[in-house]
């Protein structure tokens, strides 16, 4: 069975600083990996996804993530955060053999320091 | 703006009430989902409908009853809920019921409080 771990519960960064949110997954085959963002009181919005190919994927809002098979990681990065990036970020993993059974990590809450 | 619309945004109900949550999408998606999200927790899958047929029920108590009248609509009927059922209920849709190339589109949710 697949699983995903987000080791950081809460991260605070200064506006304009760079950001990296960590995600580690567990799955026997090549996983399908996602990052979603959730603003307070809102649903989840897909930032980016990795299925195959180039291990560096670009997403919306200036985010990117890098798939590293050797480290079982899929960390999310942004070179310069904006106050509007404050939200909850969820990493998720899906398995090709389990249609639409996407497992979400516990989430990382991002706060932005003015 | 979300393309998946959920109503109502907020709902307060007593333990003896019967209520329904509604979800609508007009993206031509053929898979629709209900998720439950408790505060500071990730979403947990409840039900999946694929081509208007129930394909996944994650051992959800029978006091939650899903219904998919057509490919655009998804309902969740609630009856005899418990206070611990208070949560944000999220609806999502995807083109088809597979993980690849069919990401989930979420609505903004219904905040349910059971008193």
Looking at this protein, list some descriptive labels:
heterodimer, A: 114 residues, mainly beta, six-stranded mixed sheet, four-stranded antiparallel sheet, 12 strands, 0% helix, globular, B: 115 residues, seven-stranded mixed sheet, 11 strands, 56% strand
Quick description:
The complex is a heterodimer of chains A (114) and B (115). With 114 residues, chain A is mainly beta.
Describe this structure in words.
The complex is a heterodimer of chains A (114) and B (115). With 114 residues, chain A is an all-beta fold. Helices cover 0% and strands 56% of the residues of chain A. Chain A has no helices and 12 strands. In chain A, the strands form 3 sheets. In chain A, strands 2, 5, 6, 10, 11 and 12 form a 6-stranded mixed β-sheet that branches. Chain A has a 4-stranded antiparallel β-sheet with strand order 3-9-8-7, with no helix packed on it. Chain A has a two-stranded antiparallel ribbon with strand order 1-4. Chain B is built from no helices and 11 strands. Chain B is globular and about 40 Å long. Chain B starts with a strand and ends with a strand. Chains A and B meet through strand 5, strand 6, strand 10 and strand 11 of A and strand 5, strand 9 and strand 10 of B.
Q: How far is the N terminus from the C terminus of chain A?
A: 41 Å
Judged by helices, strands and strand pairing, the structural class of chain A is mainly beta
How many helices of chain A? The count is 0
Helical fraction of chain B equals: under 10%
Secondary structure layout plus pairing:
The complex is a heterodimer of chains A (114) and B (115).
Chain A: E1 3-5, E2 10-14, E3 19-21, E4 24-26, E5 32-38, E6 44-50, E7 56-58, E8 64-68, E9 73-78, E10 87-95, E11 98-104, E12 108-113
Parallel strand pairs in A: 2-12
Antiparallel strand pairs in A: 1-4, 3-9, 5-6, 5-10, 7-8, 8-9, 10-11, 10-12
Chain B: E1 4-7, E2 10-13, E3 18-25, E4 31-37, E5 44-50, E6 53-57, E7 64-70, E8 73-79, E9 87-94, E10 105-106, E11 110-114
Parallel strand pairs in B: 2-11
Antiparallel strand pairs in B: 1-3, 3-8, 4-5, 4-9, 5-6, 7-8, 9-10, 9-11
